[in-house]
Amino acid sequence: MQRREMLMTTLVAGFTLACPRAEAAPIETPATGLATGETKIPTALGSLPAYFARPVGAGPFPVILVTEEIFGVHEYIRDICRRLAHQGFFAVAAEYYARIGDLAKMTDVHRIISEVILKTPDAQMMDDMDHVVTWAGRHGGDLARLGIIGFCRGGRQVWLYAAHQKRLRAAVAFYGPLSGQRSAIQPHTALDVVGRINCPLLALYGGQDSGIPASDRAEMRARARAAGRTVAVVVYPEAGHGFHADYRPSYDAHAAQDGWARALAWFRQHGV
Question: How confident is the model at residue 24 (pLDDT cuts 50, 70, 90)?
């Protein structure tokens, strides 16, 4: 294997080391009645470690890609997969940053962003996500009912993938950044691609999130409306960034529970 394919060969054990933990215990969803586990998903540049959860049985089951925060596929992301599986979905979360850095060992958020997140080409991620979709379709997933959900940086990937993958039926982005710096390998923001999204998209934000200003949300609404795209933007006025992450101090139970209920309803309303 090339060096960039070897930096991470397994997923984060437990919770990330790079983020402060909340005093309250995070949600723990049991795997009872589910088929769950870690796997390796083949891509054009080698295999990515991933976690999946789906109901027990032959299927086929509707597929939802789960795109991670900047902290990797740790226990919170795996729990999201199990929550979705208990709702009847085949959920799969791949570690898309595995070739760039080992998030299981990194503790400095600024290093994670500068050395891993900003060095991962968007084109590579889109291609990797396509391979995850193919893998799910070969392992009991119904690709005619394909959705995606993402958190934080993963919310940004939701916007980009919605503009890339024509098979998507619905998408949900939790506090994904809408603007930001562009580079040769990350040339577009969510605002740049909203006119090209291929499916209805639900975007959930905290009103106290200083990293995603109200002006960005207003601009997103305007661009979506002008392009004739179905985009619903929901803002929780008292919540901040990361309000759904129950393992972090930013967790807001009301916003998290309401957002989750809206996400499930959105998928079912739009054919996932």
Answer: low
Residue 81 annotated among the catalytic residues of the structure: no
List the CATH number of the domain containing 49.
Answer: 3.40.50.1820
pTM of the predicted protein model: 0.94
Convert the pLDDT of each residue in 28-44 to its tens digit.
999 999 999 999 999 99
Q: What is the DSSP string of 108-146?
A: -HHHHHHHTGGGS-HHHHHHHHHHHHHHHHHTTEEEEEE
**Active-site residue among 164, 241, 244, 270?**
241
pLDDT tens digits for range 122-138: 999 999 999 999 999 99
Domain range enclosing 207: 3-269
For this structure, is 241 an active site residue? yes
Choose, from 209, 216, 246, 252, the residue flagged as catalytic. Answer: 209
pLDDT tens sequence across 204-236 = 999 999 999 999 999 999 999 999 999 999 999
Query: Of 152, 244, 246, 270, which one is the catalytic site residue?
Result: 152
d(CA 226, CA 237): 26
State how many domains the chain has.
1
Cβ atoms 29, 83 nearer than 8 A: yes
199 is catalytic: no
